[in-house]
Design a protein that fits this description.
Length: about 525
């Protein structure tokens, strides 16, 4: 390993302005925490004034549930429960730090009750009622009061910056938990309108042989392998999301004709995706669509992830998370099973002639010209990515099992984590470092799931350890799929915004405030979208 983990290098490029930005962020965090604390203390003294107000307003809430509205509404019980849960979670941390395990346990039990109630509300589509909410809110309040009473006063305990950040992280975690619960419903499958679009596109693909001829002709374009052009790759089974990524990238590019997009989708969606990109205008950019089922080299004898996905035991492992929750099979998130998700580890194999590629997740929107990324100095590193350990403690120990000696002997638990979603990959350096072989090694070590549980980030953290160059954070702003409180200025300044989390912009659980940022890159007057919007 040539370099220490990214965290230990403080590159000169982290300019002064960057730190001003960070300080600005931190001070608003402090403000927010103090506001929440103050607000909640008052609330406790007043003995649930919101409860009474809610009783009067309750009959308004009877129509069908709009989750965005419900969670944003000051009047709703869901919001009240959510807020109390966040405070309670902060106290769980504090109680644990003070070794008051009994109180931590009591609080945790109530938090679970809270979560159950919220997920029930989401499943049945009916708002939480006064009768359901009152006992939980009351007992949570009295526990929180107890916590304050025995000196776990949040305002005095949280004195250091570390604790402020931790409280913020609890807030983010609460949002994640809640979005996971709602997300399981959403993850059931594509919404009806998207399914409708797929069907229409697919029938075009089958009816019009000219489309197939056109796609065959484009396969041989020299532009696909021209390293003087700017190459992007997207691996997705969602045609509309992919369209938004491509369209937003070309719409904000200074010279869209110099961009080349490499899309890989699965067999079911291949025809639809081809049809869409052949029949819409993307400002002259070159677009290639491939079918993952034609990657015969990506088989069980070469790739441990393919082997693991085919193995019935590991299937239960990949689904384990959902089985624990006793959720119906159709609620399971098929994304975890999807090989498309792991394709990011095979980019040099898929594009053997390319030297640099920007990888984009299908839940991002590009807002600036990205070609500058290609001329950034990665200092010999493979992966350029934004780090995520600034605002919350997203360090290696969060993602990996450091009780395991093969992890703890090779990695620093405090190393800073980074994000997938918008990465610039130097494929020459990648091949030289054998990063794919490293990924294979770690994926094999984790066959029993003891090093990490799910996802592509943990193996990414391992195989790009010491090979990652931190980028300015404004290249990639995360959280639009779960965090309700992202600063508008941060969003505006972002080159790429990422709807990671379960509240995807194409789902009905999308966060209302961010949805227009995605919607504006869809051609609303497209006849198929108009037909499908109503069905
Ligand atoms: C839900 O509420 C949000 C915010 O008021 C609104 O923008 C959105 O259109 C609503 N969604 C539905 C499906 O009614
Ligand atoms: C599996 O992939 C390897 C290379 O990755 C290739 O040599 C082999 O022929 C493939 N096997 C099959 C059955 O396609
Ligand atoms: C990468 O793999 C090749 C052959 O598998 C080997 O010769 C080379 O030393 C490896 N390089 C590194 C940096 O591990
Ligand atoms: C972490 O690794 C240790 C040692 O291999 C193992 O005993 C433990 O079960 C692992 N933890 C999880 C959550 O898998
Ligand atoms: C791309 O986005 C623009 C808005 O920037 C929109 O007018 C256009 O219709 C979109 N094109 C497609 C194919 O969705
Ligand atoms: C939107 O779609 C319509 C119908 O296909 C097309 O005529 C129009 O040019 C498209 N607009 C843009 C900006 O792509």
């Amino acid at each position: 390993m040539r370099r220490r983990a990214a965290d230990f290098r403080r590159p000169v490029r982290r300019r002064f302005s960057y730190w001003i930005w960070v300080l600005l962020g931190l001070s608003s965090v402090v403000g927010l925490v103090l506001f929440v604390v103050h607000h909640n203390q008052n609330e406790d003294r007043d003995e649930y004034p919101l409860l009474e107000r809610n009783a009067r307003l309750e009959h308004f809430a009877k129509e069908s549930l709009n989750f965005t509205e419900e969670i944003l509404s000051v009047k709703s019980f869901s919001r009240q429960l959510t807020q109390q849960m966040i405070l309670a979670k902060a106290y769980v941390v504090i109680a644990k730090e003070h070794n008051n395990l009994h109180l931590a346990w009591q609080l945790s039990a109530k938090i679970r009750g809270c979560q159950l109630l919220l997920s029930k509300a989401a499943m049945t589509g009916e708002p939480v009622t006064l009768e359901e909410a009152e006992p939980i809110i009351k007992s949570l309040s009295s526990l929180i009061f107890k916590a304050q009473d025995i000196h776990y006063d949040i305002a005095t305990t949280i004195v250091t910056m570390k604790s402020h950040i931790q409280a913020l992280e609890e807030r983010a975690n609460a949002a994640t938990v809640q979005s996971t619960v709602f997300g399981q419903i959403a993850a059931e499958g594509l919404p009806k309108s998207l399914h409708c679009l797929n069907v229409k596109l697919m029938s075009d693909w089958l009816k019009k042989p000219s489309l197939k001829a056109l796609s065959d002709e484009k396969k041989n374009s020299q532009r696909l392998v021209d390293n003087n052009l700017y190459h992007f790759c997207i691996f997705s089974d969602n045609v509309l999301a992919t369209s938004v990524v491509v369209n937003s990238t070309v719409s904000n590019a200074d010279h869209p004709k110099q961009l080349v997009f490499h899309i890989v989708t699965d067999g079911v969606n291949y025809g639809a995706v081809q049809t869409w990109f052949l029949s819409n205008d993307f400002k002259g950019a070159t677009i290639e669509v491939q079918n993952i089922e034609e990657f015969h080299w990506l088989n069980a004898s070469y790739s441990p992830i393919v082997k693991q996905l085919l193995n019935p035991d590991s299937k239960t492992f990949y689904f384990g998370l959902y089985q624990d929750a006793n959720v119906e099979p159709k609620m399971r998130n098929p994304k975890f099973l999807s090989l498309l998700n792991h394709l990011r580890f095979y980019i040099p194999e898929i594009y053997p002639q390319l030297e640099k590629v920007v990888f984009l997740d299908d839940d991002v929107v590009v807002q600036k010209d990205l070609t500058q990324l290609f001329s950034l100095d990665l200092h010999g590193n493979v992966n350029g990515a934004v780090e995520t350990c600034l605002e919350a403690f997203h360090r290696y120990y969060k993602y990996l099992n450091f009780s395991n000696s093969i992890i703890s002997s090779k990695f620093d638990p405090q190393a800073c984590a980074w994000a997938f979603g918008m990465n610039i990959f130097d494929l020459v350096a990648w091949r030289k470092a054998n990063a794919t072989a490293k990924y294979h090694y770690w994926q094999e070590q984790n066959a029993d799931g003891t090093l990490w549980k799910l996802g592509t980030l943990p193996p990414g953290l391992l195989c790009f350890y010491g090979l990652t160059e931190p980028l300015d954070r404004r290249w990639h702003v995360l959280g639009l799929g779960y965090d309700l409180n992202i600063d508008n200025r941060l969003i505006e300044s972002a080159a790429v915004i990422h709807f990671n989390g379960n509240m995807k912009p194409w789902l009905k659980f999308a966060i209302g405030r961010y949805k227009p940022l995605w919607d504006k890159y869809i051609n609303q007057s497209h006849p198929y979208l108009q037909d499908c919007a109503t069905s």
